[in-house]
User: Fold these one by one.
Assistant:
Number 1:
Amino acid sequence: VKAGARGSFAWYDEDADRQSRDRAEIASDLKHAVENHDIVPFFQPIVRIDSSELVGFEVLARWTHPTRGNVPPFVFIEIAEDSGLIGPLGMALLRKACIHAAAWPEELSISFNISPIQFREGALVENVQKVLKETGFKPSRLTIEITESSVIDDFEIARKKIDAFKALGIQIALDDFGTGYSSLACLRSLPFDRLKIDRSFVTDISEQRQSQQIVSGILSLASGLELDVTAEGIETADDLTYLQGLHCSLGQGYFFEKPVPAEQISWLLETEW
Ligand code: C2E
Ligand code: CA
Ligand code: CA
Ligand code: CA
């Protein structure tokens, strides 16, 4: 509506008004959803690119709203951050994910997203540790995914948290690598274990010369820094073949599998990878 409403402030205002009403409504529904456990973890396979072996899953939050249907995570995560719900939401999700994953084979790990505001919470490390204790899920099977927005404000505070996670045996991944302004400064300043190459560089890579050069550069950088790499957004066999040629170690994307509910994992584990 905004784009087509040139000069029409009435339209614009109405739209903005409706949007903020929507947000307020979603925010109050979100509180109930967190309390009622209506927000659930889905799991997207992460696969070793050379052997197609399954190594684990990224945990992705899903909310089916009673009247609105699926609310996308980029909408409700932001609202959760603004309304102080992100902490409880995140820990409830992590607890559910760990309970499921504890029943899967030992060698499978899970990768869990922590948003910038969530990362800044004082008790984050203790809360994560508490969930691991309660669920009996091994810290060495958990990776925390953060983006550079979580850390650029203050590398020293970020380093303390990352060190505390690593002291517990948890791994740390830098998510959406290459999309921010300070990706390289982050790598230089903080002890990451893994990079996730943003899907904007991966999808269609076999036809995008710029992406090819960028991804191959990221891979040699990562190998020099002894970082593991996951390519996100592998959608086609061509994407996969190209990344195989570059010897990228791990991959994730619709070509392998979409994010699926926990109930489908046991079935997934029986199929060939
Ligand atoms: P992200 O961490 O970069 O997650 C990857 C997103 O890419 C997911 O979107 C996933 O469904 C999507 N994706 C995976 N493979 C493909 C592919 O081949 N093609 C395309 N086009 N997309 C693919 P989703 O689940 O909608 O999540 C969006 C963002 O919301 C996530 O981006 C993450 O930043 C945030 N998010 C999701 N779940 C959580 C959560 O539990 N906690 C926090 N803090 N953030 C979350
Ligand atoms: Ca992620
Ligand atoms: Ca990502
Ligand atoms: Ca993202």
Number 2:
Amino acid sequence: MNAISEKQNRQETERRRTFGIISHPDAGKTTLTEKLLLFGGAIQMAGSVKARKASRHAASDWMAIEQARGISVTSSVMQFSYRDCQINLLDTPGHQDFSEDTYRVLTAVDSAVMVIDSVKGVEPQTRKLMEVCRMRNTPIITFINKLDREGMAPLDIIDDIENTLQIECAPLSWPIGMGKRFKGTYNLYRKELNLFTPGQERLPDDVLTIRDTSDPRLDEILGSQAAELRQDVELLEGAANPFDMEDFLNGSQTPVFFGSAINNFGVRELLDTFVEIAPPPQPRPAATRMVYPEEKEFSGFVFKIQANMDPAHRDRIAFLRICSGRFERGMRVRHHRTGKTVQLANPITFMAQDREFAEEAWPGDIIGIHNHGTICIGDTFSEKELLWFTGVPSFAPEHFRRVRLKSPLKAKQLKKGVHQLVEEGAIQVFQPVLGSDLILGAVGVLQFDVTMERLKTEYGVDAAYEPAEYAAARWVRCTDKKKLDAFKKACQSHLATDARGELVYLAPTLWRLNYESEQWPDLTFLKTREYQ
Ligand code: G4P
């Protein structure tokens, strides 16, 4: 790479923003996504994201899942531009049963927007996702939604976020009333009044600059609510945490906005601040060293695999997040797990709604690689130096099922189907050391229904589930071979290997798990492990 392209690399990296939206179902993630895409010019009409969600919602209906997956290849990553920035919005499936997938998507973002329903406050799924963000200290911007409804008092929501999620809040805007009395927001930093008109987004020059809240125009516009706003602003000036860029970037403070996504209110304010403060692609740890985005050699890792998106072609796409260097179509790269050199001939970008071929891409961008069964989640691709990016987790399943084939002749297909679904991260599989039945493990039970349906429709396997009485699974590691062998001998009937041949202890009860971990202090029982 010559000097000019190095400069270009830095510039392109600087203008990338790769983020995900975290929220509890129904807080307004889909609505907000849609408004963001509208501002970015990626969609022309409200309703397109919504329509997709409607089909995704009916998870019990297989056709709906199929349909949703068909469309969701383009929705898994949405790239759009806003001002000078290229934004990559990674979809984080909201349903808790798909949470493992969501967790992994969050390993590929540099920041997150957290949507909170002002009526409900912090909800369980948000709490879980926040824990994941905390693993990597991901910076988070908060959007408190549905101010057009009667909800919790703003200060109570802030308290709720601070106490439940253990993150300091720095309000950047403040609501004036709520529900029927919702008049808009006052931007505490820009000292601007954003007035609310249901169903409309104010243009930037519609915003009223009010440097001092004693300005009599406030009384004219807000009537009796002007006094409330003055009181609130005075209180906040004394008591609220000022925004601190460093604390935001290290994940200990979240700037807070209020608005109403459905009414397009507060979304532009959020987006304007987002492009200003959200971090560009950050350095990433690999097993041997830290990798910096501005490095000239290309590198990236796979955080998601999606199969059979086009039922006619059965193609599988590996989603790769670029961590450093410039990607060029046709580039030859090294695949760390296999050590082989491969050519990335027809990678896909996710510009606007359509899949397009990527001619070039930069750190922070996501490209889709056609996968014929050789790529796994967590795999790293790099230009010359063989790298392996760490930090893509796999979670121990909490639910288990035994698979029984209805026709023994289909054993081969079952193996193939399961193998591919495992590789995609849709399900986990365990082969008990004793016995021949496969045990499937999932983080959420819905994964079982989806797996069975897909085994049937995509692989022609007619099978049924039987209960598998396990309470937990743990990956077992030990450097002392003798001790490990002794454990294997003692606990043989509860041992299995996973798809990558790693030893797993399938605990019949949590009590037993505790007992065995006390009995075998030299062994580690891992609840999460990294793909490697
Ligand atoms: P999700 O992706 O987080 O699950 O939430 P989604 O955007 O689908 O929003 C969930 C519900 O909340 C939707 O209503 C949506 O219209 C509504 N909503 C989103 N933003 C606001 C807001 O600012 N104010 C109010 N009052 N409602 C909001 P729904 O009845 O489930 O769907 P629909 O019939 O409106 O499509």
